[in-house]
Amino acid sequence: MKLQKIALVSLIALLTTIAQTPINLPTVGITQALAQTPQARKAEADRLFNQGNQQYQTSQFEAALQSLQQALIIYREIKDRQGEGGALGNLGLAYFQLGDYPKAIEYFQQHLAIAREIKDTFGEGAALGNLGLAYGALGDYPKAIEYFQQNLAIAQEIKDRLGESAALGNLGLAYKALGDYPKAIEYQQQSLAIAREIKDRLGEGAALGNLGIAYFQLGDYPKAIEYQQQRLAIAKEIKDRLGEGQALGNLGIAYFQLGDYPKAIEYQQQRLAIAKEIKDRLGEGQALGNLGNAYYALGDYPTAIDYEQQSLAIAKEIKNRLGEGTVLGNLGNAYYALGDYPTAIDYQQQRLAIAREIKDRLGEGQVLGNLGIAYYALGDYPTAIEYYEQSLAIAKQIKDRLGESQALGNLGNAYISLGDYPKAIDYQQQRLAIAKEIKDKLGEGQSLNNLGYAFYKQGNLSAAEKTLYEGIQVYESLRGKKLADTNKISLFDTQSNTYRTLQQVLIAQNKTDAALEIAERGRARAFVELLASRVSTNNQQADKSPQSPTIAEIKQIAQQQNATFIQYSIITDDFKVGGKQQTKESNLYIWVVKPTGEVTFRKVDLKPLWQKDNTTLDELITNSRINIGVGRGRGGITVSQNPEAANVKKPLQKLHDILIKNIADLLPKNPSERVIFIPQGSLFLAPFPALRDEQGKYLVEKHTILTAPAIQVLNFTHQLEQGRQTNYQNALIVGNPTMPVVSTEPGKPGTRLDPLPGAEQEAKTIADLLKTKAILGKDATKANILQRLSQVDVIHLATHGWADDYRGLGSWIALAPSGKDDGLLKAEEILDLKLKAQLVVLSACETGKGKLSGDGVIGLSRSLISAGVPSVLVSLWQVPDAPTQYLMVEFYKSLQTQPDKALALRQAMLKTKEKFSSPGDWAAFTLIGER
Asked: Quick count: other Cβ atoms within 10 Å of Cβ 378?
């Protein structure tokens, strides 16, 4: 989808509300007296009151109501106005937690009246604060602010610093809800200052948490995470298990927004464990709901639905109507994602009924938006617009600026689909104005993307170009220097649309060079930043993000590499298929950059793939891999295959037609001149050496082939290599370690990997060639190898490997376990190493695979280059033992006569091909980086 839909997945429990603890009454010493004396009655009332408070603290809200109601009856009988006020206030809190806000308000108002009557200023302040919270929950923020201001004035008057800090915090939350984030931050900062001054660690933690939430809403995720981490530290220190759970949950939500779903799941699991331990049923339900959201984002809808159903059961059990509504909405979102729109609509309608019943205006606005999105997906744009307009009206009424901007954006998207571009542009511009005003950077980026797309569809190419460039600048500002590498990657993956649309806009204006700059700017940015910080000797430079290359710099890199670059960009677009809008592949953009600096642009129409052949580029690549026998690997790890995928005859030739045929005339005639492919997406897995032309000739017979994730990456690998000589005798050769026990599926028991006698033979032969000794079997422990990795010029590991497609940095190379380690050398560990090796060969299965992202393949090869290795040789599928052994020995033999690794690999492939004719046996390896 070109449009970035603003599906309102309701994340549960973002707010860390302050000042919502039940009131504790002063204890009175009880004298021995007859059972029915006033003292005894008071003692009984106090016991019930305290029992109610304890039940409240463990989320037993129904039971708390009963205890507090009984206490209230007795306090009224014995005319204890203080006790009556306290019981009313706490009953209000219990109804609040159950999501019955009108009833909570009724009780808080009664508490307020009594507190004023008996001049209990402290109680008056508490009642005002609680009324503020209840109106806030109903989405009536102006009224909430009015009450919090009165609460603040009383706290200041009676010098109740604790109450003052809480009131300031709650004002901050109310302004945050109105989308006034600067004001929200100002109040939270004041609250934090007081909490620190009076050494109120609990309040300090809450204020830090709320600051984190405000920065989260501003789209400043690094700062949000920083504050939540501080909150977590305080909660742990003061053993505030509830606060610890909330901080973990909010960290999970921040990582969720960054698209780092594995980390989000990790934090929510920790939160869930604490909630269960302290019997915090509310927190347990929220953690389950947020786990559901994370699995929803990963596309695992059945697991998402399972978690949401558990969350729903708890919400119903503790009568948390607000939570119940939110979960019903999330279930609707999950069925929406499964394409089951009628069920989605049914769940959203149930949520709408609850929101209206408990007067949850914010929730009502959100669910109307979600209903709009469901009807939009059904292609019923008029009904979608009707719902979006209702959602917009509520957002304006309750001054929910974020909701208002989202509704405007959704209206804009609907009018784009109707082809009414002037109206679409008007709505997107309104959305943009609000996003800028409330400093919602993510929303600003999304609205610029959608506005640019609308201009493009309208044919206003210059406006589209200007707008999309602005959108890219906003997105790039979100990927700040402080962000961890993995977070940059996942955030970037949510932004790739804008780069693609801008390429289309530029190509439509025949600005092919500028389009190449954008194609380059839209790939491997996190990798480039990582390499820049590793290569930079100057600290000031390391602090600055490297600029993406201009066309002049791209030409310069081609000259320096003395190679022909082929850069691919897969372009998708929206098409009406069966009356519905669907996103499909439309074109493949190809740029060829010659070492002379000549740049040529060509494009290939991809539509016939799905229109005629009923397939996609992804499927075609999978087919071509299956066609060459991919699937039997070193030591018998098998890959799953798609039996449906064989509908295209001769997939290797078909792939050649798409990727090579249109540019064949631009490629060098001399087979030893290098061609460097810069793929995108699934093209990283394409078997380039094995692509066949009409005459049946393989590409490797005509060209010397390398790959790279981006042209700019080659600039850095060149810097890594400069001035370093490779001493092939200073090599670390490892073969067939004593295999560890591994599990490649979460929650499944591990099995011991099979030994690899061929890998052992390969290591011995190569070690003899290089006049060194191979490390084998039980000597090849992870601890032993790690010690030596940073001292050698050449590293060759002949063993098992595994690519983690889900979390690329979990990819591993198997070594022998020892002591406490499991023997698996993971990509994330390699990332932190500093290596001086000039060449690393991973002679194992699938070591070139990993998680496909806008940053290239996240896996072993990326980690090795980041660690300082300019040339990495990896495999793209599971390679059989005998041909691999043969190919590797040939590769090193060739390197003894000439230093060019790319040429050596080509010669080794051609030699192996003579002996083992199937491309599955000789075409798996690819050289990334320097020749």
From this structure: 15
Cα angle 380, 385, 390; round to 5: 135
**Lowest mean per-residue pLDDT among 7-21, 170-184, 221-235, 497-511:** 7-21
Render pLDDT for 85-94 as a digit per residue (tens, 0 to 9): 999 999 999 8
Residue 709 to residue 621: CA distance in whole angstroms: 18
Q: How far apart are CA 416 and CA 423, in angstroms?
A: 8
DSSP conformational letter for 518? H
Q: What share of the chain is helix, strand, coil (3-state, %, to 5)?
A: 60, 10, 30
Cβ atoms 450, 428 nearer than 8 A = yes
Q: Could you report the per-residue pLDDT of 100-142, keeping only the tens digit for each? A: 888 899 999 999 999 999 999 989 998 999 999 888 877 677 8
From the list 350, 317, 345, the residue with the least C-alpha distance to 333 is 345
- The separation between CA 380 and the C-alpha centre of its own chain, rounded to angstroms, equals 31
For tokens 């509704």, the residue is 407
Strand order from edge to edge, sheet including 801-802: 801-802, 812-814, 824-826
Confidence of residue 369 (pLDDT cuts 50, 70, 90): very high
Element (H, E) at 407: helix 401-417
Strands 801-802 vs 751-752: parallel, antiparallel or unpaired: unpaired
Strand, helix or coil at 79?
coil
Give the closest residue to 525 by CA, choosing from 560, 550, 549. Answer: 549
Alpha carbon of 556 to those of 190, 511, 561: distances in Å? 54, 20, 9
Tokens for 747? 């929650």
Q: How far apart are CA 849 and CA 862, in angstroms?
A: 10
Q: What is the DSSP string of 759-817?
A: HHHHHHHHHHHTTS--EEETT-BHHHHHHHHTT-SEEEEES-EE--SSSGGG-EEE-B-
The span from the CA of 616 to the CA of 604, in Å, is: 14
| pLDDT score recorded for residue 566 | 92
For the cut 90, the answer to whether the pLDDT of residue 412 exceeds it is: yes
Answer yes or no: are the C-beta atoms of 803 and 737 closer than 8 Å: no
Please tell me the distance from the alpha carbon of residue 844 to that of residue 880, in angstroms, as a whole number.
Answer: 9
Contact by Cβ (8 Å): 165, 207 = yes
Quote the CA–CA distance of 389 and 403 in Å, as a whole number.
Answer: 12
- Our separate counts of H helices and E strands in the chain read 40, 18
Q: Which two tokens stand for residue 392?
A: 């917009």
Length of the chain measured in residues:
931
Contact predicate 825/867, CB 8 Å: no
**pLDDT tens column, 457-471:** 999 999 999 999 898
Q: Comparing C-alpha atoms, which of 721, 868, 867, 727 is closest to residue 793?
A: 727
DSSP states of 650-709:
SHHHHHHHHHTGGGGGGS-SSTTSEEEEE--GGGGG--GGG-B-TT--BHHHH-EEEE-S
58: Cβ–Cβ under 8 A, 6 or more apart, which residues? 278, 279, 280, 281
- Asked if the model's pLDDT at residue 878 lies above 80, the reply is no
Q: Write out pLDDT tens, residues 152-185.
A: 999 999 888 888 988 998 898 888 777 677 788 8
| Structure confidence by residue, pLDDT tens digits, 905-924 | 999 999 999 998 888 888 88
Q: Cα–Cα distance between 500 and 578 in angstroms, integer?
A: 25
Pair 171, 193: CB distance under 8 Å: no
Name the more confident of 475 and 723: 475
Beta bridge mates, 570: 588
- At 647 the pLDDT is 44
Q: Which two tokens stand for residue 31?
A: 């004298």
**Antiparallel, parallel or unpaired: β 925-929 and 871-875:** antiparallel
Model confidence at 538: pLDDT above 80: no
Whole-angstrom distance, CA of residue 317 vs CA of residue 275:
16
Confidence of residue 14 (pLDDT cuts 50, 70, 90): very low
CB of 148 closer than 8 Å to CB of 132? yes
pLDDT confidence of 390, banded at 50, 70, 90? very high
